[in-house]
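Training component of the fellowship. As part of building independent skills, the fellow (R.M.) carried out the full modelling exercise for a liganded target. The chosen ligand was 5'-deoxyadenosine. The inputs are recorded below so that the supervisory panel can assess the work.
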Amino acid sequence: MNQIAPKKLFIKTYGCQMNVYDSDRMADALAPHGYAPTQDMAEADLVLLNTCHIREKASEKVFSELGRLKELQNEKRATGGDLMIGVAGCVAQAEGEEIARRAPMVDMVFGPQAYHRLPDMLAKAEANRHMHPALKRAVVDTDFPEEDKFAHLPAAKKDVTIGRGLTAFLTVQEGCDKFCSFCVVPYTRGAEVSRPVAQVVEEARRLADAGVKEITLLGQNVNAYHGEDASGRAVGLGELAYLLAEIPGLERLRYTTSHPRDMDDALIAAHRDLDFLMPYLHLPVQSGSDRILKAMNRKHTAAEYMRLIERIKTARPDMALSGDFIVGFPGETDADFEDTLKIIRDVGYASAYSFKYSTRPGTPGANLTEQIDEAVKVERLARLQDLVNKQTSDFHASCVGRTLPVLIERVGRMPGQVGGRSPYLQAVHLEGSTDLIGGIHEVEIIGTSTNSLVGRLRQAVAA
Ligand code: 5AD
Ligand code: SF4
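Fellow's submitted model of the complex:
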């Protein structure tokens, strides 16, 4: 595949941070085959939709985007050009052939476990383009391979220019064995798999060498991580954190998303011992009602979750918590919903994501009959979000007067300002020169604005 002028690749990413990471890896895998990234879909030769299947709306969005892409493809063909279209990600994994049938202009459909085979699929799809439209078929790859896709994909690298590339995602674990009854992930991403320790450390080291200061480890069930070390022993996320803390230049570590059942002693101890591990934890509970938690197959009660939070806060008293909540799970009564509001009050979240339950085909939840009215879901969601928003602004307000280490990442919105993140993942804006970018600086928090903090520089602690 020797191109004279590089072809243009546009990737549209939906859903979680793992998809963001995967999209970057796909772009890296296609670069040696003559595809350069573009931000402008109209000039693309190949558009990949990296899709999300977690909720109903997410997959509907994909089909409407495909409608728009069909028009773009027609326009290009009318002027002698062409556009190849690939659907990747979890909708592709779940619907496979169905996408090829419903959207015949699509050239490739492939799931998250097939990304390392993308160059081969592309070659096949390019050959197919010369076939008669009636005979043309999309290349579909939704197998779960035996081989390790990460061993075949280019490792994450960063282009460190001012304000970019200081933070990076690193996928360490994929898939999930928990089978919450509402969730498609165990079906779309498959069984839980952890990358070997050496591979993770090597990728982190390379990121740090390229100037990355903060890494967020990713996994659908990241704290279930159990990568093998050189002797074949399984290493948990807590132990991995100590190893990553040794990497020169790497200053901060985060991880997401965690399951309460996998918050083990070693990981809690790492939070106690390592300032490197940021005091912000996304630990979804989904509901505060034991009855609903059981129906959701969450494998923990509300009281067990609260005890866990206590243990975490004993280890790291300033830990800020974040969560996910589902309202309107089948059978959820007013009393169940009140229990959810109660657990939110008891924990005091720094932030939280909340969703109306949506039936996902193929999940056990889809067979439950007691569906909740949309109007009830809407009302519950609004009440829950009011409470969470109030907690978020209370949390921001509680930071005023404190001095926090802020990783300065970019120029600010206003001239003369720079912006960064607090340890608790809050956006912080302050007056300061662009020389501060890339360093962690002590910043006194002097106020709040919508969804962010306003600070004043104290002194540099790291460059
Ligand atoms: N309906 C609504 N929300 C869902 N989530 C997962 N599946 C569903 C569903 N079927 C939410 C959960 C999960 C987050 C990523 O998305 O809260 O933690
Ligand atoms: Fe889905 Fe539950 Fe696994 Fe999270 S833990 S990915 S919600 S099945």
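The panel noted the following from the submitted structure. The CA atoms of residues 7 and 316 lie 50 Å apart. DSSP finds 14 helices and 21 strands in the chain.
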